[in-house]
């Protein structure tokens, strides 16, 4: 099952502070790596790559999705022109990157020993573990901590899915993040 038009992807990655040296940039050896959000994309169009005619989406043919073996699940998501949350135009682009990593974009808890130890806003704590962030339905991965919750994130995959309909506070949180971009 694929996400529908209108859903929003938040992209995260592994980061580590750097410093200038006489030979260019280098990682600060004493600084730990951490997970942080780096961008977003609201789905505007969905294309099954194997079903496209040869001339369709000519502008996108450089993309790696067009250069692999046939795969029925090979799907290309194209961003919406403008971002819309809960049916309201937010006056932001449908895709973009965060220019700097602020604390709000950081997923790894500040005191964490591992990048997979996340600190999230408290509303992410599942009311039912059937509705938890995908791959995270094990209650042992979650704990509450004041206004936050902690999650030991799985180390697999490149995306997790959250059913925003079950998390009413996610839209205002997301809008706040994106307005800082």
Automatic annotation (TrEMBL):
<feature type="domain" description="Nucleotide modification associated">
    <location>
        <begin position="5"/>
        <end position="163"/>
    </location>
</feature>
<dbReference type="InterPro" id="IPR041135">
    <property type="entry name" value="Nmad3"/>
</dbReference>
<dbReference type="Pfam" id="PF18754">
    <property type="entry name" value="Nmad3"/>
</dbReference>
<protein>
    <recommendedName>
        <fullName>Nucleotide modification associated domain-containing protein</fullName>
    </recommendedName>
</protein>
């Amino acid at each position: 099952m694929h996400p529908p038009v209108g859903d929003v992807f938040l992209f995260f990655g592994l980061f580590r502070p750097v410093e200038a040296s006489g030979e260019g940039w280098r990682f600060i050896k004493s600084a730990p790596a951490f997970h942080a959000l780096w961008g977003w994309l609201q789905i505007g169009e969905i294309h099954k790559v194997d079903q496209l005619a040869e001339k369709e989406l000519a502008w996108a043919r450089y993309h790696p999705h067009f250069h692999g073996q046939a795969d029925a699940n090979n799907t290309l998501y194209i961003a919406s022109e403008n971002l819309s949350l809960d049916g309201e135009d937010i006056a932001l682009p449908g895709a973009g990157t965060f220019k700097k990593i602020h604390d709000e974009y950081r997923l790894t808890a500040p005191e964490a020993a591992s990048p997979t130890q996340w600190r999230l806003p408290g509303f992410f704590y599942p009311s039912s573990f059937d509705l938890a962030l995908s791959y995270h339905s094990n209650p042992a991965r979650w704990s509450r901590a004041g206004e936050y919750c902690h999650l030991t994130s799985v180390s697999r995959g490149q995306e997790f899915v959250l059913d925003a309909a079950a998390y009413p506070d996610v839209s205002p949180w997301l809008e706040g993040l994106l307005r800082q971009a």
